[in-house]
Design a protein that fits this description.
Helix content is 65%, strand content 0%. The chain is mainly alpha-helical and 361 residues long. The protein is globular and about 55 Å long.
Length: 361
């Protein structure tokens, strides 16, 4: 039997690489491989959740805190997880955050291994969860994209049962953790998952509305932070923004011979240079809608995978740790098809970007 056909080899590789990631969280020797880690600090994004919890305890508006890029999530996450973190010293809370992320990873591993499939397929899928370098970056920064991605994985599995209410509560949970998961809305409409839509959107609205009513300016801040694409923060922000929109802004600035460090708004670019950043993501969204509506298949996995992938083409802020959103998609598709081409795509995404070779100092 070839080495690549041995399940234990895949499991050993996965656990060894993940152990390396965990050990590296306590040092800085993997830090130079990632833009976000190199130009910030350990727990940079985590500080927003901690500060939001402190703001609640001190009866201040969570959307007025200054840290990282500000609090851009729905209130309930700060009211629960953020408030919990604020009960402990920052470093202890950060370690708690890592522990919770590892628990979610273990849940994903258990669900993957419990699938009634060939052991080699399950072993490779487990390795995919463990050896994904954006997951290391996610934990180093103290982000929660992996939390939302984990719920997405559970959603993909739960949607196989159309009579269950679990998908609705899972989607609502994913939105409350990470509002980016609203990108799945067109897919759920196309799949006629009306119960999921009603409970998911209703639950997210119900838990969020009281806070927005009490703090009248917070809703506007939430919308502007998440959807307004006209303003941004300099060259290093764009060096780490690896989505299509960020690339188009950088390309427009290069063609117009305007240094990114001097760019604070799309209005600073000539119309011809800014136009692709305005038009291309819109066209990508239209194409995804067309493809979704024209597809004869109502395959849940394919439709949700299409829109989770579309996120990287239409949203203004795409960081390397966001690649964890693609991890449940790749794992689910591989469990279903065992297509080696998916493993090739996985490897391309699992490796760090070549950032270290062209870092903007």
């Amino acid at each position: 039997m070839a080495l690549s056909q041995k399940p234990m080899l895949w499991l050993s590789i996965g656990f060894a690489i993940h152990l390396l990631f965990v050990v590296a969280l306590f040092g800085d020797w993997l830090r130079p491989l990632f833009n976000d880690a190199s130009h910030t600090r350990r727990g940079f994004d985590f500080s927003v959740f901690y500060l939001a919890g402190q703001a609640l305890i001190q009866h201040r508006d969570i959307y007025a805190i200054e840290g990282a890029f500000g609090y851009r999530y729905l209130p309930v996450f700060a009211q629960t997880v953020g408030r919990l973190y604020a009960q402990f010293p920052p470093l202890s809370s950060y370690y708690l955050h890592i522990a919770l992320s590892e628990i979610l990873l273990c849940a994903n591993l258990w669900l993957t291994w419990s699938q009634q499939l060939h052991m080699l397929v399950r072993a490779r899928a487990v390795c995919m969860w463990l050896a994904f370098s954006p997951l290391f970056l996610e934990m180093y920064m103290g982000q929660v994209s992996f939390w939302a991605a984990s719920v997405l994985y559970w959603l993909l599995l739960a949607l196989q049962d159309r009579q269950s209410n679990r998908p609705a509560f899972l989607w609502a949970t994913s939105i409350l953790v990470k509002p980016n998961m609203l990108i799945l809305l067109p897919a759920l409409i196309r799949l006629r998952q009306y119960r999921t839509l009603l409970i998911g959107l209703g639950g997210a609205t119900l838990f969020s509305t009281p806070y927005f009513l009490i703090h009248s300016n917070s809703l506007d801040h939430f919308v502007q932070t998440n959807l307004h694409s006209g303003y941004f923060k300099g060259a290093l922000t764009h060096a780490g923004n690896i989505g299509l929109w960020g690339g188009l802004v950088s390309l427009g600035a290069y063609c117009a011979q305007i240094p990114l460090a001097e760019l604070s708004s799309l209005a600073d670019l000539p119309l011809w240079a800014a136009a692709p950043a305005y038009v291309t993501p819109f066209l990508c969204g239209l194409f995804a809608l067309f493809a979704s509506w024209r597809a004869r298949s109502r395959d849940v996995t394919l439709h949700l995978s299409l829109w989770m992938t579309t996120y990287f083409l239409v949203y203004k802020d795409v960081w390397e740790h966001h690649y964890v959103f693609l991890l449940p998609v790749l794992v689910t598709l591989y469990l279903r098809n065992s297509d080696l081409r998916l493993l090739c795509i996985y490897v391309a995404l699992a490796l760090p970007t070549p950032f270290v070779f062209f870092d903007i100092q």
